[in-house]
Amino acid sequence: MSFSDLFDSEFKQRNKGHFSAIVRVALADEKFAPEEKMFLDKLAVRLEISPEEYTEILQNPLKYPINAPYLHEQKLERLYDLARMVHVDHHLGDKQELLLGKIGVALGFNGENVNYIISKALSLVDKKVDLDTFLFEMQNMHK
To answer: Contact, 104 vs 117, CB < 8 A?
Structure first.
């Protein structure tokens, strides 16, 4: 196995973990809304999830670990995707909020303020901000 194959493999595993985390949020209420399905379809393409992997992850989203990114900006990008998934439903059920908090901690956000971070993220997504605005606002929320 070449070095580039190893990198590609690790990249794919990270994407599968990220996608499975989003599927967990989507399935927290035990059903997919049509908007959630459309979002998952688009995200699967963006994350280079094959149709076979897509089906496998939908059947067993717990199979893949979350794999928290090292860089804070990448953590925020993943949080942006997750918050958008929750927002697609137009309401935040108790299970989704609890799961989003757990995934936030798994992504590496501090457990003591993860609820504040998630609340801010959901507020920004509710305003339909783009990724760049989201990143700026999240990185400067205490200034």
So the answer is: yes
Q: How far is it, in rounded angstroms, from Cα 111 to Cα 121? A: 15
The model's pTM: 0.68
Percentage with pLDDT > 70 across the chain: 86
What one-character-per-residue DSSP string does 90-125 give? TS--HHHHHHHHHHHHHTT--TTTHHHHHHHHHHHH
SS3 46: helix
pLDDT digits (tens, 9 = 90+) for 73-104: 988 998 998 888 777 755 556 666 776 787 78
Q: Token pair for residue 63?
A: 């199979």
Quote the tokens at residue 37: 């399905």
Is residue 134 very low, low, confident or very high in pLDDT (cuts 50, 70, 90)?
A: very high
For residue 100, count CB atoms less than 10 angstroms from its CB and return exposed for 0-12, middle for 13-18, buried for 19 or more: buried
Question: Helices (DSSP H) in 1-143: which residue ranges?
Answer: 3-26, 34-46, 51-59, 72-88, 94-106, 114-126, 131-139
